[in-house]
Amino acid sequence: MASSRKNRQLYIDAEAHSTLALVQEGLISPVDGLMSEDEAIEVDKSKMYKGVPYPFAFILAPSGKRNEEVLKTAKRGEVLELVSGGVAIGELTVESTYDIDKEQRVICIYGTADPSHPNVKDTMSRLGNIAVNGKYTVEYPLISTNLKKVQKLIEHQNAKEISGFMITANPLNRAQERMIRQALDKSDMLILFLLKPFKSGGLRFDIRYEAIMSFIENFLPANRVVVVPLENTYIFSGYNELVLDALVAKNFGCTRLIVGKNHAGLGLYYDENRLNSIFDASEAIKLDVSTVDQYVYCNLCRTLVSSSICPHGQHHHIHYHSPSIMKLIKAGIMPPSVLVRREVSASILSTLFPDRFENLQELYDSLIPNDGIMEEHSEEDFYIKLMGMYQTTSLT
């Protein structure tokens, strides 16, 4: 969007831009816009909006001296240009402005204002002292394009039972594969919401996306699975995460949201002296929330099993601990295929360590069996074949 320069500007960051777009596209419905001061106070108190659970007020209060000067003097009906990353991305017509309590805001989101909390300090720095309410429009093709793609696929498949599954795939491991298959087995269609955080801390999104797409295309009925990048903004943090996940899944067309039994958001919490859980919220959202077991590999059962029904002790279990698997990958080591499918490991390592081997073709021809035909091979091919050799058991 070209800058008009005739309107004053409000500067927002990428997270605020993404969150505004989510609401604009109806993905956190019934929330359909920025809230007034009265609405914000009521939502923060009741944790409800238009009869549906909603954990905290949806507001825009960008930080920065320039923004505060603009909002202090903004008049009703004034059109403000929204700018993100130095680019004009939309407009907002001011209805009202009002002061906010930043500390109370982060307590609503995270349940605490303790600066030692990993997200509190960052969110406090992003918040200004004044919120603005009014109609807005923003450009954000990623969200609108994915929404249309999903709606088209649902219609094409005539899908009735549609499951949603939030996943980081950092990296995609065998336990997650089992959960995906289990979810697909009970659904006409599966939407995998691949979380795309704004802060780096693991594998790049493109690497995780390519790995999960490779798994889908080679090992699942690909016409029944769709991957949706879901930018994991700060509003999805804290103990209210699952309520917002459920709203997004519902508005994408899901009839069910599937979560792991070890998900932190399944815990009970008190609200207005009443004990609540995500299952209470799901009734009002009209979305079935179901859980899947935590899987481990048992070296006596010799297969993936539910940790709740395996009769053998934990000392026989291999756990799918993503940070530990990532340590192997970052060191350039292929995780055992019992942890990560070799095709997934090969895809990740060949991207993280490009041109790792000198004279790859010579190395491949020296170590890997072939059909006697000269062929060029990629590093990804080499990793896959190498893992196959690790799994050879005829000499034991």
Describe the protein in words.
This protein is an alpha/beta fold and 396 residues long. The protein folds into 3 domains: 9-139, Sulfate adenylyltransferase, CATH 3.10.400.10; 142-295, 3-Layer(aba) Sandwich (Rossmann fold); 354-396, no CATH class. Helices cover 38% and strands 23% of the residues. It has a 5-stranded mixed beta sheet with strand order 1-5-6-7-4. Strands 10-9-8-11-14 form a 5-stranded parallel beta sheet, with helices on both faces. A hairpin with a 4-residue loop joins strand 15 (295-298) and strand 16. The radius of gyration is 24 Å and the shape is globular. The chain starts with 8 loop residues before the first strand and ends in a 6-residue tail after the last helix.
Structural class, by secondary structure, is alpha/beta
The mean pLDDT is 87
* Uncertain ranges: 266-276
CATH class annotation of the largest domain? Alpha Beta
The percentage of residues in β strands lies in 15-25%
- Helical content stands at 25-40%
| CATH arch. level architecture of the largest domain | 3-Layer(aba) Sandwich
Number of domains: 3
Instruction: Supply Rg.
Output: 24 Å
CATH superfamily of the largest domain: HUPs
Q: What general form does the structure show? A: globular
CATH topology of the largest domain: Rossmann fold
Separation, N- and C-terminal Cα atoms: 65 Å
Sequence of strands across the biggest β-sheet: 1-5-6-7-4
Question: Biggest sheet, in brief?
Answer: 5 strands, mixed
Tally of DSSP helical segments? 14
Give the strand tally.
17
